[in-house]
Amino acid sequence: MRVKVCGMRDPENIEALSQVPIDFIGFIFYPLSPRFAAANKKLEKWLAKESPAALKSIARVGVFVNAELEDLLNRIHDYELDYIQLHGTESYEYCKELFSLWEFSSIRRASIIKAFSIDAKFNFDTVKDYEPYCKYFLFDTKGASFGGNGEQFDWSLLEKYQGDVPFLLSGGISEDSATAIKQLKHPKLAGVDINSKFETAPGIKDIASIHRFIQELNQ
Predict the structure, then answer these.
(1) How far apart are alpha carbons 47 and 56 in whole angstroms?
(2) pLDDT level of residue 145 (50, 70, 90 thresholds)
(3) pLDDT tens across 17-65, in order?
(4) Stretch 187-191: mean pLDDT, rounded?
(5) What is the percentage of the chain residues whose pLDDT exceeds 70?
(6) How far apart are CA 85 and CA 76, in angstroms?
(7) 3.30.70.100, 3.40.190.10, 3.20.20.70, 3.60.15.10: CATH of 2-218
(8) Among candidates 37, 109, 25, which has minimal Cα distance to 61?
(9) How far from the centroid of its chain's Cα atoms is residue 125's Cα?
(10) Is the pLDDT of residue 149 over 90?
(11) pLDDT(90) > 70
(12) 124 vs 44: CA distance, rounded Å
């Protein structure tokens, strides 16, 4: 079970997190988010020149919401991102255009995670057009904002997903969710994405809580 911790922006907190066995670390590049990574002017330089060696084994994910392609590509380069998570209403044509840009240029490229907001009315067939372009899907709770709503959706809805792309589960996951997650048997469940339920303040994670969660998840 892979673990992504999202919404990071404080170097000291990131350094502490790098000592925990996680697979992805997420940086949010949506200006309206209280966890907007670029609000910390020191973060970009710190990641490039001062971050600990342990962080190099953790994949960097940039989270974007309906971003202009130029801004997205600049962030991939400046923050040395390994993945981009598209958390808005981006179309599959948007993903296709990214692939075209990468194919015909030498700019840094990143794998794509496309997020979808799930409720009882969601049609999982709508994700099929994205399959050629995405390394992972992310299934989050449909709410008033683009992610960060802190609520779980009905996980039984996951049975309706019959696609080939592995997915990360997101939305309101807390330390107490580990047992229920272990009971999910979907063949394409690759991991979880955690954020607000593990915070002491926006962008500041409770490292001990994350460590306990991972230990329980892996038992």
Answers:
(1) 10
(2) low
(3) 999 999 999 999 999 999 999 999 999 999 999 999 999 999 999 999 9
(4) 98
(5) 97
(6) 11
(7) 3.20.20.70
(8) 25
(9) 22
(10) no
(11) yes
(12) 36
Dihedral Cα 91, 93, 96, 100, nearest 10 deg: -130
Length in residues, the chain: 219
Tell me the domain boundaries of the chain.
Answer: 2-218
Q: Is the dihedral of CA 76, 79, 81, 85 positive or negative?
A: negative
3-state secondary structure the chain: CEEEECCCCCHHHHHHHCCCCCCEEEEECCCCCCCEHHHCCCHHHHHHHCCCHHHHHCEEEEEECCCCHHHHHHHHHHCCCCEEEECCCCCHHHHHHHHHHHHCCCCCCCEEEEEEEECCCCCHHHHHHHHHHCCEEEEEECCCCCCCCCCCCCHHHHHHCCCCCCEEECCCCCHHHHHHHHCCCCCCEEEEEECHHHEEECCEECHHHHHHHHHHHHC
Asked if pLDDT for residue 188 goes beyond 90, the answer is yes
Tell which residue, 57, 70, 73, has the closest CA to residue 17: 57
**Per-residue CA distances from 26 to 10, 83, 93, 194, 206 (Å):** 12, 9, 24, 10, 15
